[in-house]
Amino acid sequence: MNTLELEAHYCAHNYHPLPVVLVKGEGCYLWDENGKRYLDMMSAYSAVSHGHCHPRLVEAMVEQAQRLTIVSRAFHTDTLAPFLEVICEMTGQPRALPMNTGAEAVETALKAARKWAYAKKGVAADKAEIIVCDGNFHGRTITIVSFSSEVQYRDQFGPLTPGFKRIAYGDVDALAGAITENSAAFLVEPIQGEAGIVMPPPGYLAKCAELCKRHNVLLICDEVQSGLGRTGKLLACQHDGVQPDGLILGKALGGGMMPVSLFLAREDVMAQFEPGDHGSTFGGNPLASAVALEALKVLQDEKLVERSECLGRYMLQRLQAIKSDAICEVRGRGLFIGIELDPQRISARAVCEQLMVKGVLSKETHETVVRMAPPLIITEAQIDETVDALAQVLATL
Ligand SMILES: *Cc1c(COP(=O)(O)O)cnc(C)c1O
Fold first, then answer.
1. What domain range is 360 assigned to?
2. Catalytic residue set
3. Minimal CB count within 10 Å: which of 79, 240, 351, 396?
């Protein structure tokens, strides 16, 4: 059996990967087992914003791995506090709770919001409601898929978790209409990544923040994908000048090396957690903390947020200039770009397969959107290469 057959034989079929076997990564490049080189336009759904195997991150990881890796939070370590100090100062959030994956940090936020609603807002027992949006993606746990609008994510996984109310994304009036005395929080992505890089109308988040404040509802921004420079600001909510009551980070926080996530929040929200309420064996471990701290330093030292802003604008312009009937819309912010294709003319999957042949790796989201979300260290020349490849693919298909 070759590698593809072996994986098909032993691995659960819960993904439909492109038929390429990657063996090496460096910066924006990936190599397959035949030595063919590709430009990475996926960055592992933004987990690899720093580029593959960044030397400083590899060094931080190896150094820490040789010293101390996992002890659990039964004890203090010398790496967690310095990491949390930097991210709290960067984001203006007073406290952080370390987890591993994005979904775990979302679960943490949901637990915090519910307990806060009972303790601080006086919501009656088991009545707390959390408002979410159509098209949301917050992860894959049973509770999180319970409020997904994607039937496939929920179907046959019931019984589902109650306590969620779903409204239209980008619609402030829908939020106003959904808020009740039982509303604990509004959980929202400032830009919906998995939905296909969907951007709400300008000022949406600012108006939501105002509504939430007026009704004592927590605004919790899921920036697992949009955060840490992806959209050309440190946080996507900063485009609207919004400081959320709770903030969820993941993906790029681990520097493309390992899973690291955080729920950050204002004091009275985080104060709901007492010893024993919540935890994670691996959350905040020394290896993760050392890598994440270095990832934040690299973000600053290499001005990755500014790069994303400037190169994102360049890439968006170049993509919008492609003349093709197959393209309905090119939209995005920073290096977080979606190309909406006309499904009557072409499938996003077919475009990704042809891009692969031309040495560019991306992945479709839903059937109609090709995602362009490269490592933030990408160069203008590499963007040109990608755009030219896409234009050629669209011209020939
Ligand atoms: C990827 C993602 C998650 C889930 O993160 P995992 O690490 O896969 O659990 C949550 N929210 C958003 C917005 C995401 O893009």
1. 3-53+303-396
2. 137, 222, 251
3. 396
